[in-house]
Amino acid sequence: MYFKKIITFMLVTVVATTSFILPAQAASKTKAPLDIQANAAFMIEASTGKVLYNKNGDKQLGIASMTKMVTEYLLMEAIKEGKIKWDDQLPISKSAYNVSQDNTLSNVPLRQDKTYSVRELTEAMSIYSANGATIAIAEKLANGDENKYINMMDKLAEKLELGPHNFVNSTGLSYEDIRGKTTQKDKGENELTARGVAKLSRALILDYPEILDFAKVEEKSFQAGTSDEIKMENWNWMLPGLINSDKNLPVDGLKTGTTDHAGMTFAGTAEKNGMRLITVIMNAKDKKNPKDEHSGIRFVETAKMMNYGFNNYDLISKGLGNQFKVNVYKGDKLTETLTTQKEPKFVVPKNAKVETAAKMTLKEDKTNSNGELVAPVAKGTVVGKAVVAANDPFNYGYLDNSEGVTMDVITDHDIEKAGFFLRSWRVTKDGLNVAKNYVVDGAKGWFK
Length: 448
Description:
By secondary structure, this protein is of the alpha+beta class. The chain folds into two domains: 3-25 and 316-410, Peptidoglycan synthesis regulatory factor (PBP3), Domain 2; 38-284, DD-peptidase/beta-lactamase superfamily (Beta-lactamase, 3-Layer(aba) Sandwich), CATH 3.40.710. Helices cover 27% and strands 27% of the residues. A seven-stranded mixed sheet has the order 1-18-20-21-16-15-19, with no helix packed on it. A five-stranded antiparallel sheet has the order 3-2-13-12-11, with helices on both faces. A three-stranded antiparallel sheet has the order 4-8-7. β2 (38-45) and β3 (51-55) form a beta hairpin. α1 packs parallel to α7 and α2 packs antiparallel against α4. Keywords: Carboxypeptidase, Cell shape, Cell wall biogenesis/degradation, Hydrolase, Peptidoglycan synthesis, Protease, Signal. Removes C-terminal D-alanyl residues from sugar-peptide cell wall precursors. Substrate binds at residue 255. This is serine-type D-Ala-D-Ala carboxypeptidase.
């Protein structure tokens, strides 16, 4: 085990002074005042992973073209590792060509007698959800092997801990949409939970923030100035200036998706006052127009969540100071205090009394069998981890189902080892105390 023994609970008061229990220990039946019209809906703050809303977030559902975020992540990873360059020219396979020619799907028409740069295909995928372009990128990543690419998707899901999922293709299209156009044999559709989509969205934004430079483009021409030119209008209608934009919501991503199986889906994100929210809508329901896939209901419901999040929560940083008191084995002092390496961030209700709690564990290789920190320890050494959380009125917890934000715990000063004479004195003192107690207990027995 990397960690052992819970050393202590420490209460850190930001405003109030009353005690607070970590969310996992104090269940709340209170629900956020939102009624989102969708099979599943989920909202988090990006930097902390704090969940601010959860409706059926752990139910596996169709994700349609939100699938393309997996391809975006794998592409960005390959570029970072130097395996692919933005100006690399990609050929178009028969499968990519066949799919790209279907104008009933979201596509830019591709040719097999020319090549396209990775950058322009990525623009087509991210702005216009172009399916043929996505297949071309996936084939590049997997050297043309579709089964290998599905395996890459599964491995990424494992790496990012996306949870229950089913991946059958790179695009999110249904089997009926691509039957006969590709070699896909699995008749299923791509599925993930809303929590899993939120994890994927968060990882994509935090690990490769440049993806937003593609996702936030409202309109761009593909193959501009050629006979193949086509105007790509972003399917994310919440972007500034588009039909479902909200002046209070600076939306800059992320990915829409629609199939009969998945319904209208959308992973959205916006940053305001230093706080970035990520929202997920799966199978949005328009009660007035239940069969209209262009009603914009997924954006209306997303706006509800985002406005609620920005209007009711703040992202704050708060230093915990030297809050963790530990016993020290062979130390110059018998007890020492530790602190977190960085100031933790908390998402807290606006205008509310805020309390935080932290639970610490020490690293096994830094302690003895009694869980005491073994001296000496140099300043700045990571000696453990702390799970830090703020009060949560709705008990939604965190994205990874943890009790709070996990942070490194360090020594902010040198912890010296006691000298020979001090250690000898302690041994002698302990021996005298034992003898004293023995005599006192014996004397008490005489008078019984």
